[in-house]
Specification:
heterotrimer, A mainly alpha (315), B alpha/beta (255), C mainly alpha (305), A: 315 residues, mainly alpha, 75% helix, 1% strand, globular, B: 255 residues, alpha/beta, Rossmann fold, 2 domains, 6-stranded mixed β-sheet, 4-stranded antiparallel β-sheet, 24% strand
């Protein structure tokens, strides 16, 4: 891949530099809110990136991706509630549970196509939603407060806002690198080929189902980890974090940033959350602007931010 | 006769009340270019669909190298060496030409649970792909995005992708459909070279090409094979002339 | 046993309400191939309009009629301004665009009516009970809902099966190109179908208003249930939507009222109390998953697809 100095690359470099330097700015200005906001942005960007793997590259339109945020979050919350606060125990369990859920859901949903796939992924996410809402022991509808963040034997202190920020950023960078390797690997070619023309993929000899399922599981696991981060960030989990509208939020980030582009979800998450924040300063009724704006993006800017930057390069 | 590479026995398929395949039996020995002709709606594409595994027959058997493949899924047939090209171009439009063919190579180079190495830098995928492109005359177009190719180039790419799966047998569904005379001539030349090494089942409406290339010809009408013989005999067969060639002349007369 | 009968009636009533929502959804889905998440917003608007107009006019029936007309107009306006530009796009665009509409309508309602919910009182004549069996009283208004919804179902049946517009709708649901080829003014047909669906959603909302609190976001939950109905019934099929709606309504209602007792027979009291609410909420989604695994196109796939 050639790194040339076009608008897209410049934007990526600037954004990454800003993210790395942000705690410095916060240290100077004392603007703690920025740190909180951007920690959240980075975590949701990680979740959106995982969705982009299957949605943007794999063409799998999951309308239940927020379920993994909730599953990862609840794995941390439930363990912490029962006194298991070690991250070395919590996080492998997060990975195992979200991978298992994705495996079960994917193996059923991927047998269907189109609208039926959308609706089935939605149905499973709703089931997960009602399961956690029914956990009376763990707060039920009201959610569950996490009194102690994940402990990593003194290696890193998640209660320290700056350390936690850099941990999230490390996950984001790791996720970006992993995605890039994945997309360009043989596996990634199969996933993308199957999005483009699944029938032909089978005709040339690929059993595409198992690759699509593997992609689905990888994305679910990645989003589960984002959920674990989110739970540590907010110190609270509730069924609301996996409601279907949250899944659409993740989709919005992917589309806004540019589907099937590596950095798109990051751009999308920043754009959406910063915009929300800015609008809510202006008016209490900011969604009355955001809603039609989304519609306009869908109608007139299909490539998202990444698409705009690319077309800017051509003139 | 030597043991057939592809043997079809009593293949039958109904769609609602329509009989698309009516007890078709056919044997293609290794090395033969067998052409399948017949008027539109005779059930040729349905037959190819059953051979490649996209359509499940109601009755009958398909044997490939003596092995019963009637119930095998599509990708397993491809792995055995049965490759098909599509009548309606079916490619990865947003990929480059080379990526398309490299995917076909990759399909037959072990499993694809390889998550790390850049597939576009693997010579064992790219080299065979380039070779297949060279054979159909698309070598200089390898970096073009497929959506930007001409129709004729799409057809050539179809063949290259089938070739790249290192097949033992090609199922070609109207490879010359919609081609101009020049492109057709090039395709005939390509197919003529391929038949030296491969067994081919060819569906084609271009009679000139069929009679130039085919070792044997089968004629299908209303889901049945009404004749299966050497080109000269087919040309002379009265039933065929009436059922098919005659109709073609009439159709030509109106056009 | 009497409780069971009462719950069956409740289930039937819920199912028929779902049908009102699902009918418009399945038509828009089948004919325009459009996933319309904003359908729930029209349901919400129907309820708000009804509460407002009933208060203004002092008449429940008049308020309901005005609300119906208002939702119809809003629905057609939404179609004309925004949604018709989304036909032919992929489903992802539909989901995002109509989600934008949800945000818009929720906020608009908050702006106009405030964040607190509203209540729509029943007129005294409807706020009564009928003895459906000796010694079994049942709310009159719920019977009214059942009657109204059944009438609408009959009306839809007549429109779709017996009129020229219905013929076009049926043709459009199974073969869009063909209707286009007939030289019909497709755009007008689409606006009409969309308006019809909107009015039905509004009707569902206004009928539901006296039973529930009228509040922001009331459409989001029931929208998903309506989608479940559409998918189970087979996309584009009114008949499928009708049968699926009643199945879903009965299963959901009966599940919620009897599952706790059933589970208590099998599990410990504590385990049953934990599992019952989750399981009864999940039932309809489980049903959909099972049906899609067995019949990937739903119970009554629209013909010709």
């Amino acid at each position: 891949m050639n790194v040339s100095l076009d608008w897209r690359n410049i934007a990526v470099i600037v954004v990454l530099a800003v993210l790395v330097a942000l705690p410095l700015y916060v240290a100077v200005t004392g603007d703690r809110f920025m740190l909180t906001l951007f920690t959240r942005i980075i975590i949701l960007a990680l979740a959106a990136m995982s969705l982009n793997l299957i949605l943007g590259y794999g063409g799998m339109m999951s309308l239940g991706h927020a379920a993994y945020l909730g599953i990862g979050g609840y794995a941390v919350g439930i363990l912490a509630h029962d006194g298991i606060t070690s991250g070395f125990v919590q996080w492998p369990i997060v990975i195992a549970v979200s991978a298992l859920f994705a495996l079960v859901v994917g193996s059923m949903c991927l047998r269907t196509r189109g609208v039926y796939f959308i609706m089935l992924t939605l149905a499973f996410a709703q089931m997960a939603y009602y399961i956690v809402a029914g956990l009376a022991r763990y707060g039920g509808d009201d959610g569950l407060t996490i009194y102690k963040r994940s402990q990593f034997a003194g290696l890193i202190d998640l209660s320290n806002k700056v350390q936690f920020y850099y941990l999230c950023l490390a996950f984001l960078f790791g996720g970006l690198y992993l995605s890039r390797r994945l997309i360009n690997s043989r596996f990634g070619m199969v996933i993308q080929g199957s999005r483009s023309n699944d029938r032909r993929m089978q005709a040339i000899g690929f059993p595409t189902f198992r690759y699509r399922l593997a992609g689905f599981v990888i994305a679910g696991t990645m989003c589960g980890l984002a959920g674990a981060l989110l739970a540590n960030h907010t110190e609270f989990v509730s069924p609301a974090m996996m409601y279907w509208t949250r899944s659409v939020d993740l989709m919005v980030m992917v589309i806004l940033g540019g589907m099937g582009s590596l950095f798109g979800p990051l751009f999308g998450a920043i754009a959406l959350l910063v915009f929300e924040e800015a609008l809510s300063q202006v008016t209490e009724y900011w969604q009355i602007i955001l809603g039609p704006l989304l519609l306009l993006v869908v109608l007139f800017a299909r490539g998202g931010i990444a698409g705009l930057l690319t077309s800017g390069r051509h003139g | 006769m030597a043991e057939a590479l592809l043997r079809i026995e009593g293949l039958t398929k109904h769609f609602g009340g329509v009989v698309a395949s009516d007890g078709i039996s056919l044997a293609v020995p290794p090395g033969e270019l067998h052409a399948l002709i017949g008027p539109n709606g005779a059930g040729k594409t349905t037959l190819i669909g059953q051979l490649s595994g996209e359509i499940v027959p109601d009755a009958g058997r398909i044997r490939f190298e003596g092995r019963d493949i009637t119930a095998l899924p599509i990708y397993r047939r491809s792995a055995l060496g049965l490759a098909r090209s599509f009548q309606i171009t079916s490619l990865f439009l947003d990929f480059t030409v080379l990526d398309n063919v490299a995917l076909a190579v990759q399909a037959h180079d072990g499993h694809s649970f390889r998550f790390w190495r850049d597939a576009r830098e693997e010579t064992r995928l790219r080299e065979p792909a380039r070779a297949a492109l060279a054979r159909v005359g698309l070598a200089d177009r390898s970096d073009v995005v497929v959506a930007n190719l001409s129709h004729g180039e799409h057809r050539q790419l179809e063949i290259a992708m089938a070739l790249a799966t290192s097949p033992r047998m090609l199922l070609l569904d109207e490879p010359m459909a919609g081609m101009g005379p020049e492109e057709s001539a090039r395709m005939v030349k390509t197919l003529g070279e391929l038949k030296q090494e491969l067994t081919i089942l060819l569906i084609e409406h271009d009679m000139e090409a069929v009679f130039a290339l085919a070792d044997r010809i089968s004629v299908m009408v209303y889901g049945r094979v009404i004749a299966s013989d050497f080109p000269d005999k087919i040309r002379a067969n009265a039933e065929v002339r009436q059922a098919y060639l005659g109709e073609r002349e009439t159709a030509g007369g109106h056009a | 046993m009497l409780l069971f009968l009462e719950q069956c009636l409740n289930g039937l009533q819920f199912g028929l309400l779902l049908f009102l929502l699902a009918a418009g959804l399945t038509l828009v889905f089948g004919i325009m191939d459009m996933v319309n998440l904003a359908h729930g917003s029209l349901y919400m608007l129907g309820a708000y309009f009804a509460a407002t107009f009933a208060a203004l006019t002092g008449s429940f029936v008049l308020g309901a009629l005005l609300a119906l007309i208002a939702t119809l107009l809003v629905g057609m306006a939404v179609e004309l301004i925004a949604l018709r530009r989304l036909y032919g796009r992929d489903h992802l665009d539909h989901v995002l665009g109509t989600f934008g509409l949800i945000l818009f309508f929720n906020e608009l309602v908050r702006l106009i009516w405030g964040p607190a919910g509203m209540n729509l009182g029943l007129p005294p004549s409807l706020n009564t009970f009928v003895e459906i069996l000796p010694g079994v009283p049942y709310p009159t208004y719920r019977l009214v809902i059942i009657a109204v919804a059944l009438l609408v179902a009959l009306f839809l049946y007549v429109v779709v099966m017996r009129t020229r517009i219905g013929m076009l709708i049926r043709a459009g649901a199974s073969n869009r190109e063909m209707v286009g080829a007939l030289g019909i003014n497709i755009k007008l047909l689409y606006t009409f179908v969309f308006g019809l669906g909107a009015a039905l959603a509004g009707l569902a909302g206004l009928l539901q208003a006296p039973i529930l609190t009228v509040q922001i976001g009331m459409g989001e939950n029931i929208l998903i249930v309506a989608f479940v109905v559409v998918v189970i019934g087979g996309i584009g099929s009114i008949r499928g939507a009708f049968i699926a709606a009643i199945i879903v309504g009965l299963i959901d209602t009966l599940g919620r009222s009897f599952l706790p007792d059933l589970l208590r027979l099998m599990l410990s009291k504590e385990a049953a109390a934990t599992a019952a609410p989750a399981l009864s909420s999940m039932l309809i989604y489980l049903l959909m998953a099972i049906i899609l695994v067995l019949r990937p196109e739903g119970l009554f796939p629209a013909s010709g697809k």
